[in-house]
């Protein structure tokens, strides 16, 4: 019985003993470095992304190797049927972005409109040069001179328009130095057509008889 009382007294003494404060665990050097790097990454990542986007946009806009572009869009036409005089109006757009190796881009000379290799109309394009960093539009006006479209050719054009809703004609602008070749889209029903890209190359021989 004395042993039981002694055990209870010891138990009461343990319950009344004040608890010692716990010491917080210290971070190791590796954990501290990892936490610091994580904070740096969280705060710097958005800045890096923004700077990268601006840098990419700047490089694209000032690319010294970015070539000039030339495109054509049909403004309207008349007389696609057989035995009907016809005329074609186009707009040639020139975009010369410039750059370290840029030069003037010039368009002008004798113009011709062909379908299936057959000349439909001809005209003259006033020469226009665009300096680096500039842009311009040049009007192309061509007419058949009162001659109608051959019946077989008119039938082919009508068939293409029924099948695709548009007629695609070839437009060439020639100078003694170079040739501009375009594929213009003439939409049926007077709808507005999108611009099509043109190609340029040096002229070696102009004796193909299209003008």
Automatic annotation (TrEMBL):
Biased composition regions of type Basic and acidic residues, renumbered to the chain: 1-17
Keywords linked to the UniProt accession: Membrane, Transmembrane, Transmembrane helix
Region Disordered, as annotated, extends over: 1-23
- Note the superkingdom of the native organism: Eukaryota
Q: Where are the transmembrane segments?
A: 33-58
Stated name of the protein = Late embryogenesis abundant protein LEA-2 subgroup domain-containing protein
């Amino acid at each position: 019985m004395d042993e039981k009382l002694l055990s209870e007294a010891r138990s009461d003494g343990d319950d009344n003993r004040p608890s010692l404060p716990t010491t917080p665990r210290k971070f190791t050097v590796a954990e501290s470095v990892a936490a610091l790097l994580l904070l740096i990454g969280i705060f710097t990542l958005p800045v890096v992304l923004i700077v990268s986007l601006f840098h990419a946009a700047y490089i694209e806009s000032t690319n010294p190797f970015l070539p000039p572009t030339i495109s054509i869009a049909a403004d309207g036409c008349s007389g696609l049927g057989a035995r009907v005089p016809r005329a074609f109006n186009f707009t040639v757009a020139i975009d010369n972005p410039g750059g370290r190796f840029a030069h003037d881009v010039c368009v002008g000379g004798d113009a011709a409109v062909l379908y299936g290799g057959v000349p439909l109309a001809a005209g003259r394009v006033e020469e226009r040069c665009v300096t680096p960093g500039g842009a311009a539009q040049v009007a192309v006006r061509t007419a058949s001179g009162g001659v109608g479209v051959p019946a077989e050719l008119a039938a082919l054009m009508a068939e293409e328009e029924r099948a695709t809703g548009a007629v695609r004609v070839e437009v060439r602008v020639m100078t003694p130095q170079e040739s501009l070749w375009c594929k213009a889209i003439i939409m049926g029903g007077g709808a507005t057509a999108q611009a099509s890209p043109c190609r340029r190359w040096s002229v070696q021989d102009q004796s193909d008889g299209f003008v």
